[in-house]
Amino acid sequence: MKLNILIMGPAGAGKGTMSELIEKKYNIAHISTGDMFRNEIKNNTQLGQRASEYIKQGLLVPDELTIEMVLNRLSQPDCDNGYLLDGFPRSLIQANVFDTKVIETPKDVNLVINLTVDKEALIDRIVNRRICRKCGAVYNINTLPPKQEGICDECGGELYQRADDNRESLERRMQSYEVETTPVLTHYKRLNLVHDINASQTIEKVWADVEKVIDEYLAQNTQKEEM
Ligand code: AMP
Fold first, then answer.
1. How many angstroms separate the alpha carbon of residue 88 from the centre of ligand 1?
2. Sheet of strand 159-160: strand arrangement
3. Is pLDDT above 80 for 183?
4. Where in the chain are the domains?
5. Average pLDDT, the chain
6. What backbone phi and psi angles, to 5 degrees, belong to 38?
7. Which of 51, 153, 156, 204 has CB 3.0 to 4.6 Å from 37, enough for a Cys bridge?
8. Does residue 131's CB lie within 6 angstroms of at least one atom of ligand 1?
9. Does domain 3-118+168-226 sit in CATH 3.40.50.300?
10. What is the DSSP letter of 133?
């Protein structure tokens, strides 16, 4: 059964961590627009050069660049089984174009998982976040440190801090979330697709809540398909 999910939440809410778990369990393509942009920047492509100007400052990359990149990615065959969109749509324009393109297709959205955390906890998580350059695993130097400082437990890769994980960029990212992304949530709430999850809990508890939402959706819709 197809399973198309959007995962939403401000920077530091744990979208990356939950996405890794969802991808592994449900075998759907994880599409993170932030990771895609960082990859373009690493490869010094034209798109990467344009995007990095905005990302460094904690601003959103212009909608037309982002939408084109996502629609291209969704047309790839690994998305036929379903997708997990992490970090998109982040503005009402993106949501409207996206919905119009997918609404009549098997790529329409089934569930929106919204991770909620209070602002103070977010700042702490972001400033202490470290990421593996090789496999993307996420650590926190206080609450989830690697066994050996600077080295990934999973693959031995080097851990780094994202260039935009500093207080100044973070303030702007939070502001842009409030102003541009909150209306996207309201839009999907009206469509009754949003499931709020308290992401201030431990990773295990957040994951249990996420799994419950997805499993309930699958159980209800598998029944419908069988009827
Ligand atoms: P993330 O890894 O999701 O925190 O994204 C990092 C940065 O990439 C954001 O602060 C934005 O500058 C840019 N970005 C990611 N997704 C989008 C999007 N859907 N629209 C515009 N900019 C984006």
1. 8
2. 138-140, 129-132, 159-160
3. yes
4. 3-118+168-226
5. 93
6. -65, -35
7. 51
8. no
9. yes
10. T
